[in-house]
Amino acid sequence: MNRKTEDLDWSNLPFGYVKTDFNIRYFYRNGKWDEGELFSDENISIHMAAPCIHYGQEAFEGMKAFETKVGRVVVFRPEENARRLQKTCERIFIPEISEKMFLEAVKRVVSANKKFVPPYGTGASLYIRPLVIGVGPKVGLGPAEEYIFLIFVTPVGPYYKGGLSPVNALIVTDFDRAAPHGVGDCKVGGNYAAGLAGAQYGKKKGYPVVLHLDPKENNYIDEFSTSNFIAIKDNTYITPSSESILKSITNDSLSIIAEQKGMTVEKRNVEVKELSGFDEVGAVGTAAVVTPVNLIHYNGTDYTFGNGEEAGPVIKSLYNELTGIQKGDVEDRNNWLFEI
Ligand code: COI
Predict the structure, then answer these.
(1) What is the dihedral sign for C-alpha 86, 335, 162, 302?
(2) 297 lies in a domain?
(3) pLDDT for 22-66, tens place per residue?
(4) Residue 177 belongs to what domain range?
(5) Can you count the helices (H) and strands (E) in the chain?
(6) What pTM value is reported for the model?
(7) Among 135, 157, 179, which residue terminates a domain?
(8) Which of 309 and 172 is assigned the larger pLDDT?
(9) Sign of dihedral through CA atoms 150, 250, 199, 244?
(10) Is there a catalytic annotation at residue 203?
């Protein structure tokens, strides 16, 4: 690939922002989306009375593009992100973005920034961040009349330092990220703002990751502030079923891989007291990929999983299979790779 970005230290990239050449923007005016255009400006100019900045009428997504050994550039399951964004948009009254428009936008913006797709084997990827915001002046509460759908891309390394090295987590019960019947199952920025207090509290106490319980009873495991919760017990893959968690595409993919490996998959309420019986725990999401969690602190007790030093064997094998498919090293038998 013809790269002019040799100065990037691909294997040591943080999960941060690196300027790329283009972002793509579509504008919704007079009841319809336009054809979209590539921009090199990193700034957006919006009216100070735009509903996205006052009332949080915004939605976003996260995906990754990879280079395979033979130089293909592929995006992992973007159709699922398109569907999830549609669900979020419907919930907060943003006009529908069709799957066709979404996939076309992904293709155009990744193609225009191909030289920023990290080389095969570096462990890095091109993070794709779509967002849609309600713009135009509106002071009374109500959906905006105009919208911007934008996608930027940026090369990233692992979200949690060390990739597959285990992290410690803290259950925070004083700060919920979602409300019962709220928007916890939608990818809106407000959920992440609501999670900041718990995350900062956890960091101060020495825990890079925090875990939320269900907001109604505080009895069931919901999700981590940035990712879904999975647990392994014997030959079973367990993940919470809850109205207030985001449906993770990584979690869905891992559960399919687990099933195909002959494991039993249970999507059900997971009581916090079950922590003492799990063999392995992981935090899973697009950014986090599969981050092993070897200790969870709750109410004065440390629940530990594995040997505390490295990922357990099942999480390791699920991680290898998922990342192998994404890099094109493992057969893509579920047809998950979208060619750019
Ligand atoms: C992702 O995993 O793609 C997310 O959007 C989570 C975010 C905190 C980076």
Answers:
(1) positive
(2) yes
(3) 999 999 999 999 999 999 999 999 999 999 999 999 999 999 999
(4) 167-327
(5) 6, 18
(6) 0.95
(7) 157
(8) 172
(9) positive
(10) no
